[in-house]
Design brief:
Elements: E1 3-11, E2 16-24, E3 33-41, H1 44-51, E4 67-75, E5 85-89, E6 104-107, E7 113-114, H2 121-144, E8 153-155, H3 161-172, E9 177-181, H4 187-193, E10 197-200, E11 216-221, H5 225-233, E12 235-243, H6 257-261, E13 265-268, H7 276-289, H8 292-297, E14 299-303, H9 311-315, E15 322-326
Parallel strand pairs: 8-9, 8-11, 9-10, 11-12, 12-13, 14-15
Antiparallel strand pairs: 1-2, 3-4, 3-6, 3-15, 4-5, 5-7
C-alpha cells in the first residue's frame, strides 16, 4: 500500500500532538469511495480540533479537516465513478471519520455532493463549511419570509469566514446588511463585500434587555451567548434569526419576550447532518449567488504543512475571511 501526506492528531499525555506525517493507505477507514483530495479549508471547528480547545476529535489517531474537494479515484458506490469531481463536508469528517487534511480519503458515497459545474474545487473550499453554513442560514431566512423589503439583516462575527460569505451573498441578493464585528479596522473590507452599515461588537455584548429597539428584520449569528440574546431583542416583529455559531459561548441569556411579544423566530442551523437535498440546494445557490470576485477578495491560500499553525489564529479572531488549503 502507498503512503501519502496527512496531518495527524495523536492523543498525548497532556492533551494532543499534531504533525504532518506519511500516512499508510491501509489505515484509512471503511468507505465505498476513495478520493484524491485536492483542496481543503480551515474553519472555526478545525481550529478547535487542531488546538484541542474543545472535544471535536472523538477518536485517535485522527486526520482533521471537516471539508474536502477532490476527484474520485475508485468507487463501489453506483452513484460515483472515477474522475467525478466531489465536495464533502460534515457527516463526522475530521471528528469521527478521517478527514480532509490528507492527500487521500476513503468515505461513504452517500455523503458526497457533486461539484457544481461552474465551480472549481478551490472555489468550493474557499467557501467550505463556513460559507455553506452561511447559505443554509440564508435559505432558512428566505423560507421564513424575510425578504429585502422587510428591512435590514444583521450578521455577527462578520469579518470571519461564515460572516464574510453571509455579507457577500446577502448583499448580492439585495438585502441591506448590517455587519457586526469586533475588528473595526475591517470596516473597509466589509463594505467592499457589500455591508451597508458597520456596528462594533460592543453594541451587542452588553447585558441583554428583554426587548430592545427594533433594528433589523432578521439576523445571522455566529457568536451565540449575549450577542445572540441582544440580536433577538432587537429583531422586528415577525422577524427571524438564524443561529449557526458559538464563538462567544454556548449559553443564551435571553427571555421569552422576543418570541411571545414580537413573534420572532430562532432558526437553528446544523451543517453536519443536513440532508443531501438541502446540501445540493445550498451549493447550487452558492454557485449562482456568491460573487467570485468577492470570494477571491476574502480568500488566502496555504499549503498542508502550514495548517497546524492556524488553529490558534482562527480561534483568537486573527483570521479574516476564508483560508483554502492546497493539498499535495
Amino acid at each position: 500500500m502507498a503512503t501519502f501526506k496527512a496531518i495527524r492528531i495523536e492523543k498525548a499525555e497532556k492533551g494532543q500532538s499534531v504533525a504532518l506525517v506519511d500516512f499508510d493507505e491501509k489505515d484509512l477507514m471503511d468507505g465505498d469511495v476513495t478520493v484524491n483530495v485536492a483542496w481543503s479549508t480551515v474553519n472555526y471547528k478545525d481550529g478547535l480540533a487542531l488546538t484541542g480547545k474543545a472535544p471535536v476529535v472523538r477518536r485517535f489517531p485522527m486526520i482533521p479537516g471537516i471539508d474536502l474537494a477532490g476527484t474520485v479515484e475508485a468507487s463501489s458506490n453506483p452513484a460515483w465513478r472515477p474522475g467525478d469531481q466531489i465536495i464533502l463536508n460534515g457527516f463526522g469528517l475530521g471528528e469521527t471519520h478521517l478527514g480532509g487534511y490528507a492527500e487521500k480519503a476513503r468515505v461513504k458515497g452517500d455523503w458526497l455532493v457533486a461539484l457544481p459545474s461552474s465551480m472549481s474545487g478551490r472555489d468550493a473550499m474557499a467557501i467550505g463549511t463556513a460559507g455553506y453554513t452561511a447559505m443554509l442560514a440564508i435559505l432558512a431566512l428566505e423560507h421564513h419570509g424575510v425578504t429585502p423589503d422587510h428591512g435590514p439583516v444583521v450578521v455577527t462575527g462578520a469579518a470571519g469566514g461564515l460572516g464574510s460569505v453571509a455579507v457577500a451573498v446577502l448583499a448580492k441578493l439585495g438585502y441591506r446588511v448590517i455587519a457586526s464585528t469586533g475588528r473595526p479596522q475591517e470596516a473597509g473590507y466589509l463594505r467592499d463585500l457589500g455591508a451597508s452599515d458597520i456596528i462594533e461588537r460592543a453594541e451587542l455584548s452588553g447585558t441583554p434587555r428583554p426587548l430592545g429597539r427594533e433594528r433589523w428584520a432578521g439576523g445571522i449569528d455566529t457568536v451565540g451567548s449575549t450577542t445572540l440574546a441582544n440580536v433577538l431583542s432587537m429583531t422586528s416583529y415577525g422577524g427571524a434569526v438564524a443561529a449557526c455559531g458559538l464563538a462567544g459561548g454556548m449559553d443564551l441569556p435571553t427571555s421569552v419576550a422576543p418570541f411571545i411579544l414580537r413573534g420572532v423566530c430562532l432558526l437553528g442551523i446544523d451543517s453536519v447532518m443536513c440532508s443531501l437535498e438541502r446540501r445540493r440546494t445550498a451549493w447550487n445557490r452558492l454557485a449562482s449567488d456568491l460573487d467570485r470576485g468577492k470570494l477571491a477578495a476574502m480568500t488566502s491560500e496555504v499549503g498542508l504543512g502550514q495548517v497546524q499553525d492556524l488553529g490558534s489564529a482562527i480561534l483568537e479572531g486573527r483570521v479574516r475571511g476564508r483560508i483554502v488549503v492546497k493539498i499535495g
